[in-house]
Fold each of these.
Amino acid sequence: MKKLDFAKENGLIPAVIQDFETNEVYMVGYMNEESLRLTVESGIVHFWSRSKKRIWKKGESSGNILKIKEIKQDCDDDALLISVELDGAAVCHTGNKSCFFKNSFEN
Amino acid sequence: MKKLDFAKENGLIPAVIQDFETNEVYMVGYMNEESLRLTVESGIVHFWSRSKKRIWKKGESSGNILKIKEIKQDCDDDALLISVELDGAAVCHTGNKSCFFKNSFEN
């Protein structure tokens, strides 16, 4: 991994999770350095849960894990874009495939 | 707009910007309530710039503005996914179309 700027957001950076084939955006999670290390080492997405205040292996209870295909970082090194293969039916705890299922506005 | 949770991140929520046709993810920015209001009212993406500490109309200097097509919010109302039409050649200040042009890891 190239150097990342964890300082801007108190040790956390946002990670956008998208489908590696369709580019569908599934969710946004936060990673600290340890969760990113675990993600890269295991090939499976690990976040830092801001509510639980602990490392959170995505799918640890549902079994719907996210397998890493590619990680990109942005121009100023404070955000990640992670392409994944979803191993399971849904990313969202609601049962929806994506966490972004609520339409707020259309133009 | 439905209710959003601005409290979790000190008044800011991350907004993922993607192309409305290809789903290509262009960038992640942060919005406060005022920038979101300006975004919805104008139909043009406005962020809160954490470095400049002010409202930042994306493209205000480059002219490469982002026209809103659709806004979705996630299951727990603390992130936005915004589909846009890019009016210009590039989203990134580096001249790259997307801010995510640095490959960090492949599996």
Note: The interface with chain A takes residues 1-2, 8-9, 14, 16, 18, 22-25, 27-28, 40, 43, 50, 67-77, 79-81, 92-94, 96, 99-107 of chain B (CB under 8 Å).
Amino acid sequence: MFEAAELGRKVPKEEYEKAVPELRAELLEAQFRLRNTKTPVIIVIGGVEGAGKGETVNRLSEWLDPRGLETHAFGPPSEEERDRPPYWRFWRTLPARGRIGIFFGSWYTDPIVKRVFGKLTASELDQELARIAFFEQMLVDDGALILKFWFHLAKDAQRKRLSKLEKDKATSWRVTPRDWKFFKMYDKFARVSERAIRRTDAGDAPWILVEAGDSRYRELLVGRALLEALRQRIENGQGKPAASPAARPVTMPPAAAEAAVSILDRVDLSQALSDDEYDKRLAKAQERLGRLSREAHDEKVSSVVVFEGWDAAGKGGNIRRVTAAMDARHYQVIPIAAPTDEERAHHYLWRFWRHIPRAGLVTIFDRSWYGRVLVERVEGFAREDEWRRAFLEINDFEQQLVDHGVVVTKFWIHIGGEEQLARFKEREGTAYKRHKITDEDWRNREKWDPYVAAINDMVARTSSTQAPWVIVAGNDKRFARVQVVETLVKRLQKAL
Amino acid sequence: MFEAAELGRKVPKEEYEKAVPELRAELLEAQFRLRNTKTPVIIVIGGVEGAGKGETVNRLSEWLDPRGLETHAFGPPSEEERDRPPYWRFWRTLPARGRIGIFFGSWYTDPIVKRVFGKLTASELDQELARIAFFEQMLVDDGALILKFWFHLAKDAQRKRLSKLEKDKATSWRVTPRDWKFFKMYDKFARVSERAIRRTDAGDAPWILVEAGDSRYRELLVGRALLEALRQRIENGQGKPAASPAARPVTMPPAAAEAAVSILDRVDLSQALSDDEYDKRLAKAQERLGRLSREAHDEKVSSVVVFEGWDAAGKGGNIRRVTAAMDARHYQVIPIAAPTDEERAHHYLWRFWRHIPRAGLVTIFDRSWYGRVLVERVEGFAREDEWRRAFLEINDFEQQLVDHGVVVTKFWIHIGGEEQLARFKEREGTAYKRHKITDEDWRNREKWDPYVAAINDMVARTSSTQAPWVIVAGNDKRFARVQVVETLVKRLQKAL
């Protein structure tokens, strides 16, 4: 998940300075018009220390009209607060309709910290997360607009940031021993936070992952996300809770042009293997995969492997390199095309549940449930509330697989636009490949940018340590195949 | 909760035989028209052994067209099923759109049984219940109609029923050693089931509590509830999921006239105390309450006491008898009238959260959050989806109090209609009492029957061992006051 917030996004100073005056004016206007909608706005700020949460909150306060705004920070509970149930402190600070409340620290802080320091069991954490989900749902049902920002810094960036703050006399007071104590637990924090985000990323109270390295980028992102959400609400709903789901979701804002970096842009597509190296490494990896898959079979460890990717990215070829290594009795390849009548008559996840492998077996999905948040989203086959809800549904589905011990691995086979064009043309020019290229492929190609946005969102919301997305550099087919087979070897080694 | 299903409701044979042909015809027609709505219907059957679940399912199968119906019973999982995540068996049996699936045993069975036999911790149970709530919500979002019936028998009735089945040669095979083993855990089962029901009683996947002692009553109840729900769906929604909440909820069906017994009908309103007895018992109870409330203060055990009741039932007089026993620094009485502007600008629960007592103190609410499911429901001040959702919200709210160690007790002061009339007239005739009677009181009186239905529903859905509703027999004021004070004594004794 966090890999989608480690892309080095930045906004140049001139662009920032050009953008801010307009953004401020628009925010003020939206804030003013918000009153008529009787919507309470709840902004949750979470994330790692040193990621500029405080600065961003200060900036927002500067941009907005302070008369309609309240900021609440939560330290250790006061005696007053300890005397009551934990949520009392949050209830008493909820903003009234028409007002904006910024929660700097929130109902997420305590469960995450307690879990990291072992004061909650895994199932107690999940219980707390379920309570949070219920609480937010209740507020949304009552008409609240909830925006949740998670500020992320890579481990190294956090260390540098804390050291820098500490060295500067003007800011050294801001770094406490607690910050370093927490930093030592960085990996644990990342795992627990990831789980918390994954299980509370509801369609109508979504998390927005903020890459926090650059102050100008994060401020513009947060400001624009807020503006976008306010505008949607003003357009759609006056007064009463939005009964229509279309009125609810929050759209990710367009970032500044220079910051519009997606996770795919960080893939080095020039990576390639020579014939020799390819033969050697593929053979070795396949031999290992064969051995491990037999072992997994004996030990009843199942696998689910998902292949998604651009048209002509070479999913088929990759899948064949995987299956070639395995005993044919041990795997099944499920190609996902348009649903059958029977499948259409059920929930969209039903057709995938059908193919969950028995203990020790492998199911390879050639396209998958991610169609909901890719093609169905981009083409409008699913309503916005449907695909937004799907992230939480998919995470829950995969969680059930993982809880049952299934090894889940998801590949996105990436190729560049030019490479795709070349392959399309080659297919059209080759008699026996011509059937592989259709008008639809050409149409999809025109939607490259919306697909990139959808893919980036998908990885941010559904990649996890337990069910990771692996972005495969596919311009060189040999490189891709070796990367796929070697990744599966690693995943099985870890599980066995 | 279960007290609402121990009222001895029955349907006479003639009435049953008169009702069935029409009900069957209507069910068949509704089932036929259901197809066009593309709605999958999921009927969950749960409850105690020997409560006639099987017979009722058989009857439903007889009444409905078998071509659009499927029944699934779940025993111990097969090897096939054990090889996959636990929900796989449910996913594979979900009905297609336009079809009805009866789940005889369901996703509830395993968590409840495991918790009763100590194989799940309390928080693991809650985790499972949260998963269930998510699963059902996902199906509802996809357009499913979910009806959940809980078949209840009082402990004694269950014993008799099992013995009777066992003695009869024709049915003795139906009683297994497992049934008796479960029977021994009756109280534990009741507690765990109550929790499961309370935490999954969503507005759009509600539980319907079935008093199971009389086969004719339970069959008509289930049949009519199903008919009502199908009709609502056919009227409101074609095809796509009901985005409008109004399309979702299921109304409790009117039961046969002779079976229309509410929990209030079982209150013996003739109970009374002589002056002497009243003085003695009240003084003794007040003395104890005084002592216990001081002890609670010292030990930091808080209480929340709710008073609801008919107009002129004497809430004020009861509250005064309680407060008279306590140190004025230890309690606060919060009269709930129309919300202030500030309160109206928040979630309806906000005004109650404000008054949660500090550790060791008592808050007495003269009317309460139950207004949402009483006056707001009956008068239409809250939309149907709002008050239906409120049961789950209220249960969660009280759960947080209970989890924090707060002693929660809820009184409904009951009086008969004639007694109310007499009191109204007396008030009108007495100068200093005249301000206590308004046109609104007279108007409310005309809605007696809808109020009775709302009260019965409220008790069924929100009374629990940890936060019980106590129905007070209020025709005799002396009897009521003693009942109230003595109940609070018992509640505190238990908590300290």
Note: DSSP finds 20 helices and ten strands in chain B.
